[in-house]
Records
---
Amino acid sequence: MPSYTAPMRDMQFVLHELLNVEQELKALPSHADVDVDTINAILEEGAKFASTVIQPLNQSGDEEGCTYVGDGVVKAPKGFKEAFAQYVEAGWPALSSDPEYGGQGLPHFVNNAFYEMLNSANQAWTMYPGLTHGAYEALHAHGTPEQKQLYLPKLVSGEWTGTMCLTEPHCGSDLGILRSKAEPVGDGSYLISGTKIFISSGEHDLSENIIHLVLARLPGAPEGTKGISLFIVPKFLPNAEGKAGERNPVKCQSIEHKMGIHGNATAVINLDGAKGWLVGEANRGLNAMFVMMNGARLGVGMQSLGLSEVALQNSLAYAKDRIQFRAAKAPVNKDKAADPIIVHADVRRMLFTQKAYTEAGRAFSYWLALNIDKELSHPDEAARKESADLVALLTPIVKAFVSDNTWETTNLALQCFGGHGFIKEWGMEQYVRDARINMIYEGTNSIQALDLLARKVLADGGAKLKKFGKLIQKFIVENQGNEAMKEFIEPLMDIGDKVTKLTGEIGMKAMKNPEEATAAAVPYQRVVGHMVFSYFWAQMAKIALDKQASGDGFYTAKLATARFYFAKLLPETAGYIRQARGGSDVLMSLDASLF
């Protein structure tokens, strides 16, 4: 059975040495009194919950899965309900929620770091509270005062949980063709009818009520995405006291049998004239739902980061223990028949790859969450806009680049185990299976790449991309005279220049032929993702260089990992740049009938 220990040293390094969050919070009045000790104490308690309560349920939950009892009733795996009760009792659902509705009002980046640990411990379980928090965010941003007062305290307390219901049998990511209908009743409510599929946490026995956020069309609504509205559809209708009352005709028809995340109920939901209430403006449901969807995309990044970390921990421990063959230069363990496999260069390549992607992913995702706090809470409008633009630009990267990398890192973790990695008891094959969904949902990674290139970069003439470029340029200027930083600054400058040039080339081609952008999007996303990781690795290398004289092996390892990243991983961008420049003709010229 795999084990997990929260990587507190690296988490604290990112928060306090790289991001200097305590100082950053001084500029945010709502969080100005949050200090280092408070953050560390919260995360240490969170680490205990993750490792002692939900991690022991990960493998058993995967083996048992969810059970469809019948008549819309679903039971989560053994222990999940009790763990959720402990989660609620400890007040974890309220961590970063608004104090007006019972929340603790802590920064989003604290919640983000907590969720990394939860996902390392048990991704399937963590999806239940994760989606609930997303529903809270959507209603907090777009709900009426009455809706907020009724639903938010229950979601914040964990008494009720939430879902988002988008996908239908005939439409996945193309929400413009969804068919679910909403008929006005005349009293401010609507009757919602339709079928939704792939609804994570769609039915379970963890909470007394489930609040579905459902996309549907009003009568006479415009075609396409401009005619979609968002509705609150509770499993049980709130009564006069605000408690779960009469059963609403929204029911789970079945649950999917999946490759991974077996402990989370992925439901087919039928709405047969279910009562619902409009959220936000009519025909502008996607605007409201995107609050939840964008939060979920950051959540997918944290799911992926969590899996990458726990897979690394276990493959590293195995590599230090497993003896096979002799080291290339000379025996390390002369008194044994063979040496531990960590002495072999290719095993180190696999471990370093996991470590480099995991630690850069942590730095990047924590920084992005800090910018969400700035976007929401900074008193200066210009600062809020700056952070909002950076978050919008880089959300596709945290979702797609991090989850793509985790698919690689979990596979490498399995490979480190050799044949044992393919055996269930070691747990590596589950991490691979669980990681695979992260590349698909909340918009496939191909769609994220298109969003990055078309909407976030080309649509505004590269304005948002230039804002991130200015951060890179500032760091380069500050360190250009430092000879020790040359090995990191030069490749960072190089990848920045290449992204600028490649963006301009694709933009010019796309003006003549829009297929050029769609053909280039995925390799372009890999190149930009590496630029982002290069920026964070260069910063972490600078800190490690400044502190290596302390003799702390942590900084020695950080510096070695930075060197590995720039020498072995960043160079893959050369191939992706060539792919992006390869054009659309080789993809689109063959008639579909000839495939």
---
Amino acid sequence: MLRLPLVLLANLFLGLRLLLGLPFRLMAVRQRPAWVRFRLAGSLPYRPRRGPRFRLGGPPVEPATVTSLEDFGRALRLLAADPKVEGILLEVEGVSLTDARREALLALLSDFQAAGKRVVSWAVMVDTNEYPALGAADEVLLAPMGRVELVGYAAEATVLGEAFDRVGIHAHFARRGDYKTAPEFFTDGKVSDIQRQTLETFLDERFAALVEALSQSRGKTPEEAKALIDAGPYSAKRALEAGLVDGLVHEADLGAHLGLESKKRGGEETPVPTFGAYLATQAFPPVRWRKLRRRPRLAVVDVAGMIVPGSGGAGRFAAADTVVKALRKAGRDPRAKAVVLAVNSPGGSSLASEQMLEAVKRVAKQKPVIAYVDQLCASGGYMAAIGAKEIWSAPHAIVGSIGVFIGKFEYGGLLEKLGVQRTTLTRGENAAFASNSRGFTPHERVALEREVEESYQTFLELVAQARGRTKEEIHERAEGRVYSGLRARDAGLVDRIGGFEEVCRHAMDEARESSDDFEIVRYGGGARSRLSLLKLLTAAAHPTTYAFCTAAWSLWGLGSFRRLD
């Protein structure tokens, strides 16, 4: 009952503000701009992030900065319907985009261009990941002092075996699957052929996508596009000569370049108007009126970072208790009609992953749960995802790595070098199984092999049951093999390829709710930081079953771990 007066009061306030500003907007209608400026910078979320209403201190936020793909799309649709608007100026400045987000951005720009509008992009410097967004414009501009760091992709595989030997640390692991290369990170002195082949496959796919994007945006053949990449990086002059950009323009001259009327204000050129300035020239700008009936809610639960037991871990790890509590809360919320499990993890503890899987299954009995992979869903991360009704993936996300390994680190040699003497006394053949003073005895090794085999068979059974296949069929796709989203779909490990917004709409459709107007609410925390080697070593100090993928870790530099917003 309290909601009705609050909604009426809120709408009254919005209406009064609209009416009070009407005279000023009417006077500005004739100054409605033909070009509107947007700035792409930082991590671009799908949906707006909730923040403090009032900022105290800190650097001011650039008014033109795009705060989310959803808001950007809404703005472009409004501008596309205005016959006076010729196009937008898109400034690209240090934007960090995963493949999926870049595709979503390019789709918005393509729709805007299809409406007969122009896109002009400008930057001071762009790298390989940023250039496809810059190059999709009708006209690509660069600052005269700028650079195009278009060089392709690289993945660095690291092994620590020899380094550990030198300091007196020895890693002892058992694994199931030739492609489960995670232990090699700690045991080997060089990168294995399998690890190299896995990385090569992903690099080939990413490079092919880059070549295709460059060919389409700049009108080049694939061979010419490859030659352009191989000749990078570029100074502004060389980029212009190579056809990567169409002109060199200083920031202060962008307005004049677009044909805007030049006006002096304190000796500075009038900048290209922002979207906020454009709205100020609308007699009746769009208003988001509060509705009497609450919008249906979509719950999003993040599994982001390395999976570990326990709680907390925000910033680096996906802690099992934290994720389970978030899932339970989403399941109990009567307004949350469906759940999207946003997985962005290389895996981790097998026990913690199975805890998450059981929680996902319980929620899936109450309401639709759809798992989505924007970038990474490997090993334990994939185990958590299979409890969902469907698994969706971005085309070039990393998926799979079904396999396990168990082991520990022996610090006896290091302790001896430091003058530390340890004597291990036991009662029971496997009592010192977890001791870091020595490796495994033959009897302990038997127990180790038994544990890893049992864990692997359990993993196969869980996936086979979830994916409707036999254990033998899953085994052929397992043993640590890693797939892109597209190849995972062909292998039956993923149901559909799509983007985050498409997944959200599908989840609401599955719940038989409106997929046109709903709100997204996040439950639990997500990881934003990169994986920490120190934390990994600490977590792996004792013999524990792990479902972790080092190929995913090696490829993380192509786009770091982030929460889906």
---
Amino acid sequence: MQRTLTILLFLITHGMIAQQNVLTPEDVAKLEYVTNAVMAPNGDKIIYQKVVPEDPLQKNAAASTHLYVYNVKSETSTPLVTEYSTSNLRYRPGQNSITFLTRQKGDSASSLYEIPVGGGTPQKIFEFESSISSYDWHPQGQKMVFTSRVSGDDNTSKLPYQPEIYETNLTNSSAFVADVTGGSPNKLEVEGNVTGAQWSPDGKHLAVSAAPSSLVDDFYTSQKIYIVNPQTLKVSAEVTHKAKLGGLKWSPNSEKIAFIAGKDENDPIDGRIFVVDATGGTPQILQQDFEGMFHDLHWIDNKILGFLASEGVYSSIGTLKLDGKMKKVYSDNNVNITTFSQNEKNEIAFVGNTAQHPGELFLLKKGNSDAKKLTDSNPWLKDETFGAQEVVTYRASDGLEIQGILIHPVNNSEKNPLITVVHGGPEAHYDNGWLTNYSMPGQVGAGEGYAVFYPNYRGSTGRGVDFAISSQGDPGGKEFDDIIDGIDYLIENKNVDGDRVGVTGGSYGGYATAWMSTRHTDRFAAGVMSVGISNNISKWGTSDIPEEMFLVHSRKRIWDDYQFFLERSPIFYADQAHTPLLILHGKEDTRVDPGQSYELYRHIKTRTDTPVRLVLYPGEGHGNRKATARYDFNLRMMRWFETFLKEKGNEMPDTQLDPSNR
């Protein structure tokens, strides 16, 4: 086998066999993708947004989100706004126009702009003293409700220096009703931090979501829905339900509200559908035993909801009656659906990705079983060679069935090195679609000869509430044992070399990477940890979600069992670590404080001779947003695996990157 590979490499090097085009970090850095789609009520147009990244070799900036319109009849796309980013797309009622939020040169804050559906120059139609974060049109299209964060009293110090008082003097978002033709906005009398507001179809009521404060922890744990009278601006009713809260929609007759939320306060995700009367009160849960999760919903009529859901690694669009009866309308195991929109004719536009391409716009016409892909944002991908992607199912050591996704190397051999990619959360999951980005090796790894494994360990979403809560109270326990069981399955069945297994992940996936590189160091030849947890005791006091962590993760307080939390921390096992570990962290991360990376780095550096490196990204938070920072991450990750996983070297790569000579 080795002789065959040597001959093949010689033939490729000397031009006797055409070298395959495989995905590279440079390719990942230029990927464009569709993220949002909204159908016109009559179905003749679809407005959609496309993310366009900056060139990482020229500018370290976040990607732009451009606006396009697709004409269903002519089957053509027309760019509407490509010079700057847009957000919060809406069709304006009674007008043949689209509105969006943006901040252009000369604007003091993000403002509301309007552009004809047929194109033209966007015009600013409303601005406020501070940035507008969200808005919704009154059914007649002249008034709107919007949210904005308005500064409170001036607390400027009388001294020449002013300190920052942590979690004090917080600025909340409020909701306002405004007539865009003139007049001053009126503030709704809703206490706390307003996170969204929506008009009822008859224009007589508003549904408003709000948290007690602007703290992230309150957003996750304590949001409520209020019904507000737009004439008096006062709260007339509220919905009684304490859990994570997602999107909400009014019924067409304005008599009910459907919303997505957690089953209860211990449910780690907003993945159940509830319906409540517009007069408030206790909502009714629909399909409470559904072994999946709901992502989005809308009303088809007063008795039927349309939904987008995940079941395991697959997604579907369907209908749900108020009596709980559910029906799938569209599903394709090769297409992962991320968002959808439906018009009056029950035609559906959605954004979907596959193993061969990131997000694109699709259209499903009424009565059809197959959806048509309408856009092709990266035509050059057709010339790339991809590794085969398959869904794998295996049994954990205690018999629980676990799903995962495996990308095979482009040139599969009898023994392949493996990169294991662990998702964060842990309330998240991988879908059978596009699995390559700056922090996920995916097809870049496959092109360089790695198998790449994405396990949906216990505690992942997409398989019902019981599975999602099955890891609670056991951090680093059976949840991560599931990953090792999956690796053993791949070694036995999928040509994986057990001596060349790597691991990477961010946030909770970074915790898993640190855990595997210390507690289970004998199993892993290389690790790349991103924004991860190393000390569960200090993490609690430095994170912005301590209460959320208690309610849906730990389920007990650290001061009730310090020893338990210490022994579930990677630093506890740092003295035995011999897995070479690259640690990457945004310096402005508030979710997982950079101190978590400092701690693990210092422990391994001081207590072992194991190769360890800490890379900090100024200006970045819980994950990298800007082009050069993302590209740098991708290059360092792949180079680390090349050194310690493929070549089995002992010396760390140079600290400097040379993209022209990787």
